[in-house]
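Contributing: when you submit paired examples, paste them exactly as shown. First protein:
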Amino acid sequence: TGYAKDTAYRIARQAWRRHFSVSVQSMDQVDKWSIFTATYPVIFVCSTTGQGEEPDNMKKLWRFILRKTIPHDALSGLQYAVFGLGDSSYQKFNFPAKRLFRRLQQLGGTPIVDRGDGDDQHYLGLDGALDPWLENLWTVLLDRYPLQKPIVPESVAPDPSCDIDYIDECIGASVDETELIPGTHLARLVKSDRMTAPDHFQDVHLFEFELDDSTQVPRWSPGDCAVLRPENLDSDVNDFLQQMRWAEHADRLLQIKPHDESIIPEWVPRRTTLRWLFTYYFDIMAVPRRSFFEMLYFFSSSENEKERLHEFTTSEGQDELQTYCMRPRRTIVEVLDDLPCSRVPLEYIFDVFPEIADRSFSISSASAVTPHRVDLTVAIVNYKTLMQKPRVGVCTKWLLNMELDRTVGLRFAKGTMKLPAGPTPIIMVGPGTGIAAFMSFIGDRVSRNISANYLFFGCRNEHGDFLHQEQLQKWVSCNELQLFCAFSRDQENTVYVQQRIREQGDLLWSLISEQDAVVYVSGNANRMPDDVRQAFTDVAADHGVDDAAAYVQAMVKTGRYQEECWY
């Protein structure tokens, strides 16, 4: 989501004001040996992915410091602090930060302050824990490293991270070619079909991509994800450039010279145009975070706007920021419409505007069946808030507007759910788009003549949003799948998947207790995962297990009960 990067740069700006020399790096960019010889404080900011897993750009460092051959006092000279970003509604809340903090301590490191646990469920979001943690951090650090001169006032803007200049066209300069992000494969959109009924409130689309034969076709595993980097639509970019008074210079060549090369990814060309940057790199449709307002404050020519912006940057003003921006999901474009006297200087664009974040979607097809085709089952983000215009997702809007035969870059990422190697029975619970990964599960197992597949699918109406109905019923007719559906609104009393689970308690207990079946749960993380786990707990209790909750928890620990849920 970019929250860890945003938090790290916020800490760096505060450190700069206190006259520390600061370097911000992705954990996997860090020279891992430098941690063992560091004579300066090191601050780690960790997000959480999947079901309590460390993010991809932390994995290399994490694997390295887990080595058993590292002496127990190897980090005795390290002063460190760890702040985690997570959501307490998940069972493994901030597990990467907790594990990192503990491991650094095991290797002899000295914590500067207690670990900080940012919680998305806090009424002020992650800042609810970050603000007091930072206050404590600077108190301790300034006690150890007394200032020789005053703290730089909050009214002084930090230096820009890049030098950006227009290139005189007469010198014959041209735009640098855009490099593909490592691991990217070219894929062509060959199908874009709505799966739900036209009158159904939720638009769920099936997007099919054909992989380019000219490159080595990857073999992805069932449960893996396809990663896409969306683009802003031309119409949105044009409106934004006009709003920022950059339209007449949108296609002029720019030379970008970052003061630190780690600030800008390698794939971003150093000679390019504003139009390219705001189409492919900057997320102008994002809901701005606190740091956006902190930076925008420096560039406002209106005292009224400056006062409002300053309020949004204070701890006391966070409730007001939530009301103005976060709850109605007000976008950067809309904020700048509200603040016509606040405009960002060209040289500060990399310090103010967030990067477009990658989007991951569970793959609905099995590489064993269609090795050149990647299917995605995608719920289109479109909802209303207090704002006049509906809120739409950057990625799903981009996909919906994409013409057939358009070629895009696509990468693969490991999912969090893993299939058993052999013919072990699997029990899948996937309401709504939670079914996406299970389509690849079933397709892969059917291709290996494994028929012990049990799916509990839930939706509102059989004729409204029964996703992948035709393929599922085909597998059922061939005795390759047992399917149990809960159509919640097709009868007077609502019926959910957890009720179907209890109804099939004898069958499920036989599979779990006698055949070591593995349970998978995928879908919306609001109430469904807890309700489904309780249903399996009830099944165990009904069949004589004294501590049924502990039994299910033991299944979780051994990988026989796996969840992949999201908000």
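Second protein:
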Amino acid sequence: MEWSGATRGEGEKCQQLTESPQVFPSNAEVGSVFTALAIPVGAIFLSSTECTNEGWTAIPQEDWRKTFREQGLTNGSLVLIQDSSNSNNSLLTKEGEWITTVNETNWIQVKNLCQSESEEEHVKIPATANTVVFDIRIKAIKELKLMKELAENSCLRPIDRDGKLLCPVPDNCTLKEAELRMGSSLGLCPGKAPTSSQLFLFFAVGSDIQPGTEMEIIVEETITVRDCLKIMLEKSGLPGDTWHLRKMDWCYEAGEPLCEEDATLKELMICSGDTLLLIEGQLPPPPSEMLRFQGFLKVPIWWYQPRGCTGPWRSHQDQTNGPPPPGGAWGATATQGAPGDTYAEASLCYLGDIEISEDATLAELKSQAMTLPSFSEFVIPSPTFLRAWTVESRRPSRLLRINQQQLREYKLGRRTEICLEPLQKEENLGPQDVLLRTQRRLPGERAYGPPVDLVWDTARGWTAGALQRQVADCCSLPVEKIEIAKYFPEKFEWLPVSSWSQQTSKRKKKKKQENLQGAPYYLKDGDTIGIKNLLFEDDGDFSTVRDDAGKEKQKQLALGRKKSQEALCGQSSSAVSGAESPGRPQRPEASLSIHVGSFR
């Protein structure tokens, strides 16, 4: 790296710089320059421009322990070193004059970009790294003698070296959180800064962008690409629908098109400050959509195995406690219906992608998945020893039960992922069969045994009595000696399953037929059913120690959120007092809809 050491001749009116190249490891601390140059500890300044004598910024002493890489220094970077023997202790400005001391760099310059008739054009606001942006904005409005109304409708925007206004800084951030250095220039601009759920974006027409031609827009991060395109076209006044969006890359050129028009900006990792380009022409279909046009699907395949299960399907490496299979690391995730402490988790392992025709059957999908290189780690006799599920939020969701049914009839979406579960014996589920995970409660303990699959034929109805009889037959116990409950893992709660009746009309005295598919059970494939033997315990408690810990954790999280909200409200009310000082911005209000049924 290239370094500049500042020296000052006694009695001289003009200051001189002695420039000498020095080499340092990129992982060395910045403060080590004093030792390497054998000079007393003084001050370190970075050049904020490419010219040696322009834009020097002091490095705070607390940042001297950071490495050169963390400070953003590269080969050829310019650094001004000033030892403690210099009594003037000053910085070099654009004019080459020594005017500002090191201790006076703890300020932020705010330029007035709201009202041209103001007496002042810019002010310097004293600040530290922990100063809140809101306080700087309010103080700048006062010192610039602007209208009080701007306190509720203005924002601060950083100004880069070319004079371009960057993305507004949120009011509730500190200078350190906003990554603003002391001495930075901010522009006081009309309009509110985007909220935490909004994005501030630049956009321009065409790929040949001229400086200063970008337009600005604030949108919700949950807006789709299609809706964002419509808003930008309306603001640009462009007619027609033959346009698409591209994100500008780091070379300031048009990047790949945003092909997924139904995806949200958040899903595509679009951030505040990004620049989108309006490009004329129809959007080319993505590769996955081209496969759909040709009648093919690209399906990611996962391996799913509940914890605690044993059998011949286990991988060779898993049997020897070796490293995970090459398809991906085993990821422990809480599964639907896993209440016990020993059998509470399941594994999902990514195996790879397959391309298959929509006219292929589910059995053919399983056969093709078995040809993936990562699948060779498992021992599966045939595809009939595999159970297929769709994957949502890294969990099994919908059971694909009929092996000879075409994938087209399952209506798999463009982003559908499939996980395969190993079986100990062949399985052939019918359309009326429901697969449940049953776990028997251990007598005298608040825990359950290993899960056992139960196939329930619902041809005779989804009633609680039918399910109780099926479970009793499976456990070889009388119906009156068992009690069952469905587990809700997201709430860590059990809901006992019992017969009930619901009257819907007082005049006709009709009763709604009970159905476990509806409220309050919403029973589906993969749900966990706890079984209690009333011969040993009849207290009606299905919970486990893990449930208690889960509820306590949820309670602590809720309490923490409540305290954070109260602290934020307290800061907002006490930040600025008096008629001249408006309050801190409150949290955005959420709409509440209340639907009242008719009881007449």
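If you have annotations for the second protein, write them as plain sentences, like these:
The chain has a mean pLDDT of 77.
The first strand starts at residue 2 and ends at 7.
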